[in-house]
TrEMBL record:
<feature type="domain" description="Prepilin peptidase A24 N-terminal">
    <location>
        <begin position="13"/>
        <end position="94"/>
    </location>
</feature>
<feature type="transmembrane region" description="Helical">
    <location>
        <begin position="102"/>
        <end position="121"/>
    </location>
</feature>
<feature type="domain" description="Prepilin type IV endopeptidase peptidase">
    <location>
        <begin position="237"/>
        <end position="344"/>
    </location>
</feature>
<keyword id="KW-0808">Transferase</keyword>
<dbReference type="InterPro" id="IPR000045">
    <property type="entry name" value="Prepilin_IV_endopep_pep"/>
</dbReference>
<feature type="transmembrane region" description="Helical">
    <location>
        <begin position="205"/>
        <end position="232"/>
    </location>
</feature>
<feature type="transmembrane region" description="Helical">
    <location>
        <begin position="128"/>
        <end position="146"/>
    </location>
</feature>
<keyword id="KW-1133">Transmembrane helix</keyword>
<keyword id="KW-1003">Cell membrane</keyword>
<dbReference type="InterPro" id="IPR010627">
    <property type="entry name" value="Prepilin_pept_A24_N"/>
</dbReference>
<dbReference type="GO" id="GO:0004190">
    <property type="term" value="F:aspartic-type endopeptidase activity"/>
</dbReference>
<feature type="transmembrane region" description="Helical">
    <location>
        <begin position="262"/>
        <end position="286"/>
    </location>
</feature>
<dbReference type="GO" id="GO:0005886">
    <property type="term" value="C:plasma membrane"/>
</dbReference>
<keyword id="KW-0489">Methyltransferase</keyword>
<dbReference type="Pfam" id="PF06750">
    <property type="entry name" value="A24_N_bact"/>
</dbReference>
<feature type="transmembrane region" description="Helical">
    <location>
        <begin position="328"/>
        <end position="349"/>
    </location>
</feature>
<feature type="domain" description="Prepilin type IV endopeptidase peptidase">
    <location>
        <begin position="109"/>
        <end position="230"/>
    </location>
</feature>
Length: 385
């Protein structure tokens, strides 16, 4: 057995072990439990699990899918997560060999785990924990820095500037869809429950300012608005007819040749809104009030109609940080297509579509990871670039 095959096998075994820990994250993060203590235990009888109960896949098979101590059924999802992680890690090790890509291989494995854990939690709870996404963005940028230092960025992995751009554009693209979609859902009426000090109103302002002034001035405008809210101790309203309406008018003017030009205006607007969204997400995470900014908090909390969960915005930033903005776009296109196909299928079967956008986005990211380079190269070839 040569070294490359041995590393792939080792990666698969390592993935099985990580998949076992992923099940811990899937269970404990939504319940705000410590992921390290207490040690693993049966959720039904609370009996502490012995090492022989924690062998990935093998324990579930040997026990017939039941707890050794109380005989309560163990969901088949547990070995499925372990198998998927093992398979995913093996495929990544084969396509991105560790001797060539070094830390970049580990970064892609980490991304795969973040996507899988976020998807399963989203399917269960219709939320994506900030504990996954916001540190995930930072880790994506850290691995991009390693890519830059080790020279692996030349082999398709993003450099640090490309990762920053990917994270900002990822968050900005989805939050812009959310802003405009939510505005339409409200029939262009103002929000009834604006957040204080920073929320969707500040993101809308960043979107408009970024189109004309660039991403960092756009972020600055959003932060100034947040400071004014803090100083006034109330929401200083910014009419959306001015911010979102102004953004749409700006795009028309940019397409007519005014200002920096349409492409630069779109890039500046999305990056500014994305940066403001990540700052807002970090603020509400540190405040431990997840329902205040993303509409995914307590069921009885008042909220305005939302076109997309804020967790999806942060997940897109994670994907952009690990894969760069070009593969991010591939991921979004695949996610939209997959969501549309499944939605049409469920309409035909007269079933309600209760799957949120996060799992589709994760699926698109996996496709972009495996084949995104070829898709981007083919697209550039069509354009003659």
């Amino acid at each position: 057995m040569n070294l490359d095959v041995l590393l792939v096998v080792f990666a698969g075994v390592f993935g099985l072990l990580v998949g076992s820990f992923s099940n811990v994250l899937i269970w404990r993060l939504p319940r705000r439990e410590n992921v390290a203590f207490p040690p693993s235990h049966c959720p039904q009888c609370d009996h502490r699990l012995a090492p022989r109960d924690l062998v990935p896949v093998g324990s579930w098979l040997s026990l017939g899918g039941k707890c050794r101590y109380c005989r309560a059924p163990i969901r088949a999802r547990y070995p499925a997560v372990e198998l998927l992680t093992g398979l995913g890690y093996a495929v990544i090790a084969a396509l991105f060999p560790f001797p060539t890509f070094g830390a970049g291989t580990l970064g892609l494995m980490l991304l795969f785990t973040l996507l899988l854990v976020a998807s399963v939690i989203d399917l269960d709870t219709y939320t994506i924990p900030d504990e996954l996404t916001l540190p995930g963005v930072a880790l994506g940028l850290a691995f991009a820095w390693l890519n830059t230092r080790n020279g692996t960025a030349e082999m398709g992995l993003p450099t640090l500037p490309q990762a920053v751009q990917g994270a900002l554009l990822g968050a900005g693209l989805l939050v812009t869809i959310d802003l405009l979609g939510s505005w339409v859902l409200r029939r262009f009426r103002e929000r009834q429950y604006p957040e204080r000090p920073i929320g969707y109103q500040q993101l809308s302002l960043g979107l408009l300012a970024g189109a004309w002034l660039g991403p960092w001035w756009g972020l600055g405008a959003a932060l100034v608005s947040a400071v004014l809210n803090l100083a006034a101790r109330r929401v200083v309203r910014i009419p959306e007819i001015v911010t979102l309406g102004g953004f749409l008018v700006s795009l028309l003017l940019g397409s007519a040749g005014f200002g920096p030009g349409l492409i630069l205006m779109v890039q500046g607007a999305l990056a500014a809104a994305g940066a403001a969204a990540l700052v807002a997400g970090m603020y509400w995470w540190l405040r431990h009030e997840p329902g205040s900014a993303d509409g995914e908090g307590e069921a009885d909390a008042p909220f305005d109609p939302s076109a997309m969960g804020f967790g999806d915005v942060k997940l897109a930033a994670v994907i952009g940080a690990f894969l760069g903005w070009e593969r991010l776009l591939v991921a979004v296109v695949v996610a939209v297509f997959a969501g549309a196909v499944l939605g049409l299928a469920q309409v035909a079967l007269k079933r309600e579509n209760r799957v949120k956008f996060g799992p589709y986005l994760a699926l698109g990211a996996v496709v972009a990871l495996l084949w995104g380079g070829e898709v981007v190269a083919a697209y550039r070839g069509l354009l003659g670039l």
